[in-house]
Amino acid sequence: MSTTFGQSTVLGYPRIGADRELKRAVEAYWAGTIDAEALETTAAGLRAEVWQQLRNARLDSIPSNTFSYYDHVLDTAVAVGAIPERFRRLGRSALDTYFAMARGADTEPTLELTKWFDTNYHYLVPEIGPGITFTPNPAKPISEYAEARALGIETRPVLVGPATFLLLSKPSSLDRLDELVETYAQILTALAEAGVTWVQLDEPAYVTDRTLDEIDALQRVYTRLGELKNRPRIFVATYFGELGDALPALLGTPVEAIGLDLVAGPGNLARLAAAAPFGGKTIVAGLVDGHNIWRTDLRAAVTNGTTLTALADHVAVSSSCSLLHVPVDLSVETRLDPALTERLAFARQKVDEVVLLGTALRDGTADLPAPLPPTPAGWRLTAVREKLASLTPADRERAGYGQRAAAQQARLNLPELPTTTIGSFPQTAELRRARAQLRAGTLDAAGYRERMRAEVEHVIHLQERLGLDVLVHGEPERNDMVQYFGEQLDGFAATDSGWVQSYGSRCVRPPIIYGDVARKAPMTVTWSAYAQSLTTKPVKGMLTGPVTILAWSFVRTDQPRSDTADQVALALRDETVDLEAAGITVIQVDEPALRETLPLRRADQKAYLDWAVGAFRLATSGVADDTQVHTHLCYSEFGEVITAIDALDADVTSIEASRSKMEVLDDLAAIGYSRGVGPGVWDIHSPRIPSESEIVDALRRAVTAVPARRLWANPDCGLKTRGYPEVEASLKHLVAAADRVRSRP
Ligand code: GLN
Ligand code: ZN
Q1: pLDDT at residue number 658
Q2: Hey, what's the torsion of the CAs at 31, 37, 39, 45, to 10 degrees?
Q3: For the CA of 588, the nearest atom of ligand 1
Q4: Is there a shared CATH topology between the 21-367 domain and the 387-743 domain?
Q5: Most confident among 49-58, 639-648, 661-670 (mean pLDDT)
Q6: Among residues 234, 280, 250, 287, which one has the least CA distance to residue 265?
Q7: pLDDT reported for residue 279
Q8: Chain-wide mean pLDDT for the chain?
Q9: CA 127, 118, 255: angle at the middle one, nearest 5?
């Protein structure tokens, strides 16, 4: 079998199937409509399809074990025996134990789900408690390797590397690294015995800030694994940024290949140059962006690759990270503007780019396709550009909070501890059906609008009945909080099948921001105004903020993200002004993704937070003092960005807190946050109905950190995934609890 790496590879590939076949199969298995064997048959079919596709594309080194029923970090946990006792105790089959860790079982809570670096993929956090004894279990990588080999395809199994595995675990600690490395050593030996010639170990944790001890540990790991007598050749892959001091550490180990992301970490090149020469190692150059959907500038990539060939004995070309983060195949998108299509590359197209680049590095650039024509003039919008150029700091400033708070109180006359919700109400089967009928053409636009208006009316009446203070229209008309705006803004495109795995069987279809952004017409005003016409209580307008819109889209790379964020902010600003003119007195601008796109290295975080906060303020500073601006944040630990949350200058911030036990309030108090705050007092991620006294307790705890006149009572996120019975019961408890705390704090 070949011992050289070859010219081209990818670090991983989408596993959901071109038509989300895996999602359907896994969900059918969960629902009990297919059995384990049928699930496995579908899975094997999907794996074979990927391998054959990669081979037919003439990719030299083909990865395996990149398939997963749920998550590759969970797969690695299983491979090293890190299955917590509470799941082992269930005595289920290996497959059902695996799904129990991901989805819970009986009363056992799942492993925690958290974001995979700065992507929209979420992994399950391994729990490395004292009860875990690491034991090698290489059955999955070995059987997938054998499966590919039976098809005549030699593959390179991929595993999360031991250091990254522990750093991503709970607790995040390298204390048990030496022990774990011995388990990896046994796995590598087993792979070698199965015929594996190359293995890929992913160590992306080292593109984030790491201590010297942690970097030493990395060196120790790969020195130890490198010394093994019977092992495959080792390719250590890193991605999502610059390796920094971990690069010379890795270069000092006996591993045969090191992968570097030259897209998200262009500085890796200079660092490599400074470290040269480095013996017979292969450098796997991540030149094709695996994290975004734009075509590669092939000539620029070759130039970088050529710089590398002067430094290393052998250079191979790869995707910058796994292609897991992009949709499968562009060729099925037939409704996109051809001028956009020719600028895009999804996973399949990126494989072709990698192969082309690998060949060009060896044989020269003669066969590279012609460069793209300039972008269509229509994608540049002069009015937006002029507006952006003329902005001054005053456009991101409102009057002082004291003045605003007084004006808002005079106008809104809210009680102490006002009650509200985060925006969405249950997305019922009827709502989804209406949307499907609209798409299928069996319901016309007017009919659809009627159904949505009926839902708004229902939601308003329900909230009045429950006695909430600030109402919402319920967002029935929104398929998704980003897509809804993307569909109405210039500069955005939507795909038909551009699905990307978010977690488990859940996939999202991010819009593409390809050109200048502008609002064609008001986007939410008729809905909010209609809702407001039904009640004398204030109805909150509901917008998605610029940072979140960018975070959940594929964003153009031909201008700084901050400029694109400001363009989106200007469109939202126009919307807030129109909402205000339509009689809306409270406007919420959601930024759940604020923390999510925080750069991985501390040195880059301030610049990001500055423009992110600036864009939010640009979006929200166009309204009068007596219009109350809310924001909502969730899905994260916010400790790291707490000063940025303060800097948003929203009048009221609602924040996920029910799971983190109100710690966020102490954090806010510590930095002197002095405006309104609504810590979530009902965890909407679970179907459990919180009791009145439980909410009372949470509010009383909150009052110790924040005075009651600045405190709001609300759930910790939107209610779209819940059902009406739970929502009614829970909100009833919430209103009663607020009443009780008001009268007896
Ligand atoms: N307003 C949105 C909703 O209620 C907020 C969703 C979110 O925070 N992810 O659905
Ligand atoms: Zn939320």
Answers
A1: 63
A2: -160
A3: 1
A4: yes
A5: 49-58
A6: 287
A7: 77
A8: 95
A9: 70
In angstroms, what is the span from residue 591 Cα to ligand 2's centroid? 8
CA of 733 to the centre of ligand 2 (A): 20
For the CA of 548, the closest atom of ligand 1 is 9
pLDDT single digits (tens) 128-138: 999 999 999 99
Tell me how far the alpha carbon of residue 222 is from its chain's centroid. 30
685: annotated active-site residue: yes
End-to-end CA distance of the chain: 74
pLDDT band at 4 (very low <50, low <70, confident <90, very high): confident
Is 264's pLDDT higher than 80?
Answer: yes
Q: How far, in Å, is the centroid of ligand 2 from the Cα of 193? A: 49
Nearest CA owner, ligand 1 atom 5:
718
pTM beyond cutoff 0.85: yes
**Average pLDDT score over residue span 380-403:** 98
Q: Whose CA is nearest to atom 6 of ligand 1?
A: 718
Ligand 1 near 716 CB (within 6 A): no
Q: What's the rounded Cα separation, in Å, for the pair 464 and 414?
A: 15
DSSP secondary structure letter of residue 709:
G
Residue 1 clears pLDDT 60, i.e. is over it: no
- pLDDT surpasses 50 at 291: yes
Ligand nearest to the CA of 721: 1
- Report the pLDDT averaged over residues 290-297: 97
For residue 488 the two structure tokens come to 């109405």
DSSP tag of 710? G
122, 461, 473, 685: which one is catalytic?
A: 685
User: Taking the domain 21-367, which CATH number applies?
Assistant: 3.20.20.210
Rounded Cα distance, 600 and 251, in Å: 22
423 C-beta closer than 6 A to ligand 1: yes
Q: How far apart are CA 180 and CA 176, in angstroms?
A: 6
Residue 542 Cβ < 6 Å to ligand 1: yes
Label residue 660 by pLDDT band (50, 70, 90). Answer: low
Any ligand 1 atom below 6 A from CB of 720: yes
Q: Which ligand has the nearest atom to the CA of 727?
A: 1
Domain boundaries, the chain: 21-367, 387-743
At a CB cut-off of 8 Å and minimum separation 6, what does 558 contact? 375
Identify the nearest ligand to the CA of 588 by its number. Answer: 1
String of DSSP letters for 653-693: EEE--TTTTTHHHHHHHHTT--SEEEEB-S-TTSSPPPPHH
Ligand 1 atom having least distance to the Cα of 424 = 4
| Separation between Cα atoms, residue 45 and residue 218, nearest integer Å | 37
- CATH architecture classification, 387-743: Alpha-Beta Barrel (3.20)
Hey, is 519 helix, strand or coil? strand
